Amino acid sequence: RVLVVDDEPDIRKVVKMTLQKAGYDVLEAENGEKAIETINSGENRLLLDVMVCDIRMPKVNGIEAIAYFRQNYPRVPLIVLTGFPDTDMATSLLRQGVVDYLVKPVEGEKLKAAVARAMEQRELAPL
């Protein structure tokens, strides 16, 4: 199960369709605040495998959402998907344990490969 967090509906739709075709169950949230609500509702927190997150969003931005997830859900691998690449930010996020840093528009194959890598990492992570 993959949570896609992006404030652009078109991006969410493309990412969701790409991942669903690859056999993933996809949840969506339009910002960090909604992502946090989504993961904390029902059984989602037990079932989330990967989070794909934009950086520039209203309310709770990607950096804040990633910090929250790293602290509260350290076993969930995170992939950044941004339209505003920033080398320093990428380096910093990758050092913090983000699995991949992708730039929009992302190719479907690249996205699927990143999610597959993140899933492998999750399976290898100790409980």
Plain-language structure description:
Helix content is about 50%, strand content about 15%. The mean pLDDT is about 90. It has helices at about 10-20, 30-40, 45, 60-70, 85-95, 110-125, and strands at about 1-5, 25-30, 50-55, 80, 100-105. The protein is globular. Helix 1 links the parallel strand 1 (about 1-5) and strand 2. The chain contains six helices and five strands; from the N terminus they run E-H-E-H-H-E-H-E-H-E-H. It is α/β, with parallel strands linked by helices and about 130 residues long. Strands 2-1-3-4-5 form a five-stranded parallel sheet, with helices on both faces.
Largest sheet: 5 strands, parallel
**H/E element sequence:** EHEHHEHEHEH
Question: How big is the Rg?
Answer: 13 Å
- End-to-end Cα distance, whole Å, is 18 Å
Q: Give the % helix.
A: 40-55%
Oligomer: single chain
Tell me the strand order in the biggest sheet: 2-1-3-4-5
Secondary-structure-based class equals alpha/beta
Number of helices: 6
Question: Total strand count, please?
Answer: 5
Low-pLDDT parts are none
The shape is globular
How big a fraction of the residues is strand? 15-25%
Overall pLDDT: 92
